[in-house]
Amino acid sequence: MRILDRHVLTETALSAGVATGAFVFVMAAGNVLSQVAGAIASGRVTTWEGFQLVGLLFPGLVPYVLPMGMLTGVLMAFGRMGAQHELTAMKAGGLSLARIAAPALALAAVLAALAAWMNLEVATRSNDEYRRLLMGSVKDNPASIITPGEINRKFKGLIIHARERDGAVLRDLWIWRLDEHGRLFETIHTAEGRLTKVDKPDGTAVLRLVALSAQVDTRRPGDDAFRFPSVTKEAGQAPLEFPVSGVFKEGSGYEKKLRWHTTSELLALMDKGWQVPVDASPAKLAECRMMPRTQLMSHLASAFSIFSLSLLAVPLAVRVGRSETFVNAAVALAVALSYYILSSAAAWVKNPALRPDLLIWIPNLIVVGVALVLLRRASKH
């Protein structure tokens, strides 16, 4: 019996490990190419910080890919054992399908507990540190938010374009100033400008954008049809200042999302609510208090899906009975997409009276129910 258990466990672990590794690579590669590589290329972060960012990506990805990895792994392992009649031989020896699958389900249960911990603690802290590192480098060198050759709209009322950037120096700098209606009223061009952070005596901080030896072209207010000629003048310096909070979200560098909060933070938010408006009505306050509870349940439900999808994969593998990797991967993809669609639909519910914190568990309950029915049918054959 131990030999069979070890065999089933090894087959499942190897298949799930390969599948999970593939999914992690695909998702990590996408993030690295879209965020980290772009940040390094634009000079927003150093190469060493780029490696740190890549390392911080993995804890946040693993809990997401483990359900898909285990689902694919169980399908591949049991599909191969079914195609090679190993399951038939085990059943002939008096073992039920549930007993044969026990080692694989035990592995899924352990991984579900690990994923719950990672979802609630490790991944949330990793995502938090990822954003802080990414934006922290920008705060040390604010000019790095300007990507050379691209249009920048991070500053309210400004459109900025620079051909080159060297530290805090921006070369061939163009600044277009807009009024409150988004209409152009001033154009500033200079061969060289500087964007720096300045700490004021009162403790506040501002970003100061200075155009050196600038040419300033000013239009008459309200002249949308450009009927009047603009006024052009030379300026030794054209300084513009903006509060740091206008660009860095109250100086934190980003707005921390609800899903990036740890367990203790979510529990605290259940009492005071998430992003409660000043004049919130009782209904709105109840909704704001329900959101952290729903997020906590979402983390747990996501972790439990590792077990529920693995349970469903056992009878599915027996029914498909194929050893081909692409067939099992296609079945896994179809099942996973169906599960995530159900989960997304449950997450759309915001009304506290409908208990979205409990509705988030419905996809898992459906998967477990279907799995038990299929498992019972498969055990009869």
What keywords describe this structure?
single chain; 381 residues; alpha+beta; 2 domains; 60% helix; elongated
Give the secondary structure arrangement, pairings included.
Blueprint: H1 2-41, H2 47-83, H3 86-92, H4 97-140, E1 158-166, E2 169-178, E3 184-199, E4 205-218, E5 231-243, H5 244-248, H6 263-272, H7 282-320, H8 325-347, H9 356-359, H10 362-379
Antiparallel strand pairs: 1-2, 2-3, 3-4, 4-5
Description:
By secondary structure, this protein is an alpha+beta fold. The protein folds into two domains: 2-139 and 274-379, no CATH class; 144-248, no CATH class. 60% of the residues lie in helices and 16% in strands. The chain contains ten helices and five strands; from the N terminus they run H-H-H-H-E-E-E-E-E-H-H-H-H-H-H. The protein has helices at 2-41, 47-83, 86-92, 97-140, 244-248, 263-272, 282-320, 325-347, 356-359, 362-379; strands at 158-166, 169-178, 184-199, 205-218, 231-243. A five-stranded antiparallel β-sheet has the order 1-2-3-4-5. Strand 1 (158-166) and strand 2 form a beta hairpin. Helix 2 (47-83) packs across helix 8 (325-347). Mean pLDDT is 81; it is low at 249-254.
